[in-house]
Amino acid sequence: MTERSNQTAPPEPRSQPRIYLLDVTNRDAVQTSRISLSKFQKTMVNWYLSQMGIHQAEIGFPDYKHEANYINANVELAQQGVFGGMVISGWTPATADLVRKGLWQTTIRNLNISVSTSRIMTEGKFGDRMNRDDVIRMMTAAVDEAIQNGVELLGVNAEDASRTDETPDEDYLLRFATAAVQHGAHRIRYCDTLGFDRTHTIYDCVYRLAREVQVPIELHCHNDIGYAVANSVEGAMGAIDAGVDAYINVTVNGMGERAGNADLVSVILALRKSRGLKQHHILDERVDLTKAWRICNYVADAFGVPIPINQVGVGANAFAHESGIHADGVLKDRHNYELYSPEELGRTEDAERRAPVGRVITTGEYGGRKGMRYVCEQLGIEVLDEDEMLELIMSANAHNQMPLTPDEIRFIAAHPMEVRRILSLPT
User: What is the reported pTM?
Assistant: First the structure.
């Protein structure tokens, strides 16, 4: 079945399936206990992702009233081309009423809907109120609601797919996915919700599922026992080998509930550098890894969660060499102890200088016109309405409760109307 979206042109015909990245930082990572992002910070994450060439971003919850203004403003930004060709989408539970509500209060028209498929979750959540056939009926009613209300790209999520028990006379996960596709779903999301799978089990399950339904498969893997990146890659290969595209769900810095999700940078490096994959160029060629350093540091600062020293690619020690044999080897030829270079991730001297030296002038929640003017001049920003620019900077600083970054100030100057809407509350 052909995917459709009013935000990106159809892909060129190709001889083999590809792997695309679908970032869920603004949907899954923001659900992490004890941390959060403001609506403006979420918008900046979307912009950074688009700069990085990420295919799709799941930006939030259209059925939540407090997300409506943010989502609608981001749809407008997408329509203006601010996010390039990146597809933006929302997420709701797979019930017709919540789908209807989300589509009524927002203009998002790309959607993923989700319901549990494992027996332990369906019985644990619904008890005697619903059996597994009822779950499928509820899901297909939600699919019908979405399609009838103009959703252009619809994914159906099988939550806890990896623990969906199968019997000799029934493959419930396949029955669930088949029903979704028959009612119009364009993709199926295989969720390893508790990080339960191993690489060979997720490959086998996804291969079997993709071979039968023949629509693209999304991989949504959690890291509870450390398999998220490996399972995402091997699950995606199961889809590829079955002849369909794969979409790996990632988050920046691997942020997510409990132990997190598949890390964006790690997945990219695995697909481009690991044995048996690097020569096949199977990953979406638009992904620009040189933007990784900026987005990873932005998200770390915005969440208030420092990047671990040993984080893949962007950690402080990712390119640090101390032991004699390592230092000697890398000085002779970096390829002795490095699969990739700092430059490939955008780690240059300028990028690592995280704060200016000498005299510092800032602007923010309690700043004035002169300071704002000076900062904008230093950033090369032409300010047409100083009163509006100062008001938006002050509001955004208060909204984030941290100093604005240069990119945030530039974004405010370029899109003042949308930023004002993002910072406002529904009336």
Answer: 0.91
